[in-house]
Every structure is written in structure tokens, then in C-alpha cells.
Amino acid sequence: MNIVGLPESEPERVAVLMDKLGQRRYVLILDDVWKKFSLADVGIPKPTSSNGSKLVLTSRLIEVCRSMDCKVVKVPPLSNEESMNLFLKHAGRGVLKVPSLKEILDNVVKECDGLPLAVAVIAGSMKGIYNVEEWRNALRELRDHVRSVKGTDVEIYERLKFSFDRLGDLKIQSCFLYCSLYPEDYIIPRKELIEYWIDEEFLGNGSRQELHDKGHTILNRLENNCLLEKVGRDIVKMHDVMRDTALYIKGSGSRFKVQSGIGLKELPSKQEWGEDLEKVSFMVNNVSEIPPHLSPNCEVLSTLLLQKNESLQRISESFFQHMHRLSILDLSYTNVKQLPTSVSNLEKLKALVLRRCYNLRYVPSLEKLEALRKLDLNRTAIEKVPKGLEMLSNLTYLNLCAESLKELPVAILPRLSCLQCLMLYVESSRIRMNGFDATRLTKLERFEGRFTELIDFNAYTKSIQCQLLTSYLLVMAPLEAKFNVKQRIKGINCVYRFKLLNVDSDKGRQKAMMLASGLQGAESVCLISKDRTILEVSGDSEMGPTKIAANWKKRGIEVQLVDERWDPTSLPMKYVILSGCPIGREDPAELPSDVRTLKIFGCHNIRSLSDMPFFQQTNELGFCSIHDCRGIESVIDLSSPSQSCTPFENLELLWLENLENLHVLVKLAEASVVSTLSSQSIPAIFSHLKSFYIEGCSNMKQLFPFDLVHDLQNLENLIVRGCGQIEEIIGPKEEEDNHKGNGTQAPTKFSLPKLKELELTCLPELKSICSSNREMVCNSLRKIKVRDCTKLKRMPLYLPLFQDTHQSAPSAHPFERIRICPKEWWESVEWDYPNAKEVLRPWLNSY
């Protein structure tokens, strides 16, 4: 039965479901039921012997099963043999090689009492341990845990607490307990969690990189011990029973109060808070206001998490009045417009997180908050920096990436000498960085900022050559210059997170998922928030988020982009943008030696990248794009004897756009441009290149000389668009040019073994992909796109499909699609393989 198409309104849905289920025999399984409910109220006809239907529900509470008039069937625990097999799966079978451990191992497994989660967690805590004394001690501790309590749930918690106790380290235990502050079954980003641990000082002191390394090490240990679940590469989850165990552990002593993700519309009354609370989490709820009468007496409260209460607009002045020891305050993703002035008196505050409070315009004076180490104002609406910012001498993390910010007073940054992370809104022309002030921030590990004068930019980049910035985005652009920080390019995976605005039903969410899955290049689609309102799309999508949102709106799904990031594995954040500035030989721009991404916009006095000192030495550049630079004649000039290295030997992505005077990619001979290269004298120019994109370069006639093909063995994406004069993609060998017209020969094959996508669009003069006596073998090709290339008469491609003499179904092949325009071109073009058109027809689409 398809339940996706049910009506969105509850009364209609109940009626339709009741009608559909009433017309058939059904088996319905309801998992993890916690309280009694009426079947009729949700549209389920009562199963009877006459209608032959069955209802199965699972619950941890036998009272629920009885109250629902169910026949109670207790799920038996695992047998000893099943328990042992599961234990060895998680602890490793190496323990069996120690004969003296056999009896102890048997007893430890018996103490797990056949509970699968307890078996897995306890086994994880003993993984890699082969010492008899340690196993004997573990058995003794486990027995002490279990025999000191009574009651089914408590006995389970105590068995799991055994693994918690075996962590040994108080800070690691604190890291584990912290995860229980998130809602049940919540998807937790690893980096976000580690940032909280840093704020709480669980990880000690050190550089940001050292602390993140410690955090990942702890997360790996918690995962290996089965205390956390690894959901994906960058996210974890806490099993609901493990979360209950953590809250059970925090039920004594300094306590947690956790009511996260349960749909709260107002905070608990003052009497419900309790004076002994240490950490309080009301994150991911629907609280709209904190009223004046609510002023909890929480003198020992250190952490208050209110993020993702998106309806929250007002916080009363009295709310923070008795929270003198508050250390962590997170109000991110709320709708507050201003913070109460009482925040100014939270003198113990170490982290104030206000990111993506899109309407926040006012933050009171921070002058007294000398303990503050983190201030995050990313994507807020502030126009001025908070008063007293210059007094925060202990600040290590400052995010002022707010588009509305009008000014950053020059006297502030030099006084923040402890900063490890500084993020400014680089697309703003109003925030100017003084390079010499920036050089005084010697502890920076992550920096995002814009310079408007080349002297400032060079002063800063020279100063960091001996520093180890792990992440940076440096922009050199005068006030009037234009550039695009997050411009889309083939071959780079992006992750977009959209908030579903007009969707409140499973039917609507299913429709949104289907639209997202239909995006070209989308690799994964999932709903990541507890309330299933955040849709994450990752992959190499051809459309940016604005176009995606507009396209979906036409189809009835309204979304708002809440996050956008590049896949860090494909694009390390060591990133420089140069725009609208002189960077040629007379005024060279000094680039950091470890820059991985370089984008150049509208720099007209540069003839070749070789004019820059950076390209006269070996470097780590992985991505390079050049846009709208009128002076560029060649990408690299190797004609000078001093140019002895190959500056693109690590390059993976090259993007060239609107370079009207570009003639060749590589210039060799002095004072002339040559179209052939010697593979012996110029080795490995593009040996790591994966994606090549060229558009609007109107003076290019030949893209690659044939002698460069041996360097393209890693090429995966080749996109050529709007180059009006281009005639050849791959030129002939010199001897082939010299012997033109000497009779026909059988084509000689050459290979681009990793090429997955070939696009040729709007190339009116294109006559050949390669010379007539060459055939291009493309064993990995998945996509072909040819549009408005009417002079192209031959397709010299040889594909694995042509080897399939049995003509398997299209679904059996990894090939994806061919898109062509006009249709008449497809009918007239010739393929070297006789039946190519017939073989490829199942994948053919015309515009």
C-alpha cells in the first residue's frame, strides 16, 4: 500500500487511511511505541479475526502493550552462543587466542544478560585488551554495577555505564555525556560537536588544529566502543538507549536538564529549573518568547543551549539575572532581534554563539566579558561591532562574517592578539583590512579577510610564509572589483542545505526528496534534522542553489538556503582571490606558498600566470580559474630559460572563462606561440588534471596539442563552451601535418582512460575532435553533450558499449546519457564504429 499519497490534513488523512485499510487485509507494524493511543484516531481499523488483519507494535514498556489490548510477546534475550558471536564481532576474535581468558570471557558475556546493545557496547570497551588481570578486574566491576541496582531499565543502564566508566578519562566521559544534550536520534556533525567540546574546555589548551585532532581521536574512540554510532564520514548519532544512559548518569550530582527536540512552545516555569542544574538544553523546539516573569535561580548553570528555536523573537531582561556562572550561551538559528542588556553582566561567559540569527541587529556591550573566548556573529544583521569588543583580550574565535556590517574599527584587531580564528565578510567593500595590523595576529590558524590595497595584501602574505595557517580565504580586490567566492565548477562537490518552508507532511517531504534526487549530479539526498525540515543535497550539481530554489518553487516546493559548503576533500580551504588589481611583472602579487585554490578576475595587466613569482616555482596549487582578463595570451609561458619547473604538476581543476586574447595554453618558443610540445622536454604539465573547463575564449583555435595528450591520463571532465574560433580539440602530430593527403590509413588509437564527461557547446567553427587518422578510446565515458557544433562531421570516440555484441539492456551499462542539438546533426554525423548510433540510441536525448 502506498502511504505517500495520503492527504496532508489530519482529518482527511485519517478518513482515507481508515477507508483503504478497511478494504483489505493488512499487517501493520508500529515501532517504539511509548504510550497508549486510539487506533481509530489515527485511521487504523481494529484488527479482528473476521477481517484477518494484524497489528504488531514494539515497546520497551509492557504496560503500553497491555493497555493497547495486545497479546504480549516478550522478545527473548540472545542465547549464550548468539551473545558470544556478537561479542566477538565487536571485541575481535583475537581474545580467543589467549586460553586463560576463556572462563572470564564466558562470564563477561553472561553478565550482558543477552541484551544486544549491552553486548556490543561492553565488547567495544574491551576491544584490543588481552591482559588477564584487566579482564578479571573488568568482570568484577561489571558485576558490581549490575548487582547494586534493581529494575529492568536501571539494570540496562548500569551495564552500559560499565563501558562509560571504563573510558577512564573524565574529559572523555564529559565529551560522551555532552552528546545527550542533543535531541533523540539527532544527526550530529563531528566538527560542530568538537567546537562545543573546545568551548567547554574538555580538550584542554593548544592550537585549534591540535584541539580538533584530539576531538576526532575521542570521537573515534567513542565510535569504536559503540558509545556513539558513525552515520557518515562527518556525522555521528547517539543511540536512544545510550542517550538515556547518559541522562541516567547525570541524574545525580550536578544535573543536566534536557528537553530538546520535543516541540516545546514555552520554557518550563521557574520552579522546574532547579538550583543544581549544570547544563540545560532546549535546542530544536518552537519556543517563541522568554517572558519577563521567567528568571530561573541557576547559580551553577554553565551551559545553556537554545539554538534552533526559530520562532524565538524576544528574551526578557530578567532571564539571565541569576545565571552568574553561565559559560556557554548558544542562541544560533533563532529569530531574536536584540539581546537583553543583562547579557553584559555574564562575566564568566566564554562562548557566545549567535550564528544565523538573521534578524539580530543589536548586541549589548561586551566590555565586562573578559573571559569570552568565542564570539560568533556569522550571518547576523548587525551594522556595528559590539561595544567593548576591543577589551576581549582572551578571544580566540571571532566570526564577523555579516553582510550588513558597515565598519571594522582599525584599533580593534591589534588588541585581540590571542585570536586563532578570524572570519570577516570578504564580499563586503566596506570592511578594509590593514595588512600590517593583520601581521600582528601571529596565532591565527584560520583567517578569512579582504584587502583593498596590494601593499597590504603582500605585507600579510609575506608574514604568514613561516606560519601554519590550516585554513584561509584571502581576497585582494579594490572596492569596485567584482568576484564570486562560491562560483560553481564541474568536478567540485557542493553540499547545500535547504529549509523546507511550505512542507509539513510526509507527502511534501517525499516530493522534495524526489525533486532533489532528480538534480543532475546529485549524489546523496537526505533529511538531516530531527523535525525533518532540513534537506541536504550533495554532489556535483550543475545548478547553483538560487536556480535550484527557483526551479522547485515552480513545482510547489519553497525552500530557503541555510548552508552551503564545498566538499573539503576535493577543495582544501587554502584559497586566494585576486580581482581588479595589477598583478603582472611590475606589480607582482605575493601568494602564500601553500595556496591550493586560486581565482583571478579582471586582472588585465597579466599576459601569463608565469608573470607571477608564485608560478616560477613548484607549488601545491590544485584548483585555478581565470576570468575576464583581457591581457592573458597563454596560461603558462615556458619560453623563458628561467622557467625550469612545471607549475601545474599538482593541478586538478583548470577553469578559463572570457579570456579574449588567449591563444594557447602553453607558450614555448621565445617571441612566438607554438602549437606543439615536446613530451620529452616538457614532462607532466597537466598530469594530475581531472577537470578542464573553458568558455568564451574567442581566439583559441586548438585546445590541446597532440603531444600534450599523454599528460591528460587523469582527465575526467572536459567542458568546452562558446569558443567561437576553435577548430580542433586535440591537434595532430607535427609529422601528421606534414603528410596530409598521402592516402588513407587505419586510425591509430590513443586513450583518455578516465574521461567521464565530454561537453562541446556553441562551437561554430569546430571541425574535429582529433585528426582523421586518430581514434580516441574512452573506457570511462558516461556523458556526452554536443550542441550547436554544426561543422563537426566525425565522432572519433570508441566506447566500451561498442564491445557488447549481445546488446544488453541499457540499465546494465554505466553509461548515462547523450544530449545533442540540433537533431539533424546527429543524423548526419559519422562515427568510426559502424553501428554506433544504433548502440547509443537508448541514451540519446535532444534539446
TrEMBL record:
Location of the Disease resistance protein At4g27190-like leucine-rich repeats domain? 683-795
Presence of the UniProt keyword Nucleotide-binding in the record: yes
Which ranges carry the NB-ARC domain?
A: 12-93
GO terms for biological process? defense response
What lineage is this protein's organism placed in?
Eukaryota, Viridiplantae, Streptophyta, Embryophyta, Tracheophyta
The answer to whether keyword Nucleotide-binding applies is yes
| Official protein name in the record | Uncharacterized protein
Which one of the record's GO molecular function terms can you name?
ADP binding
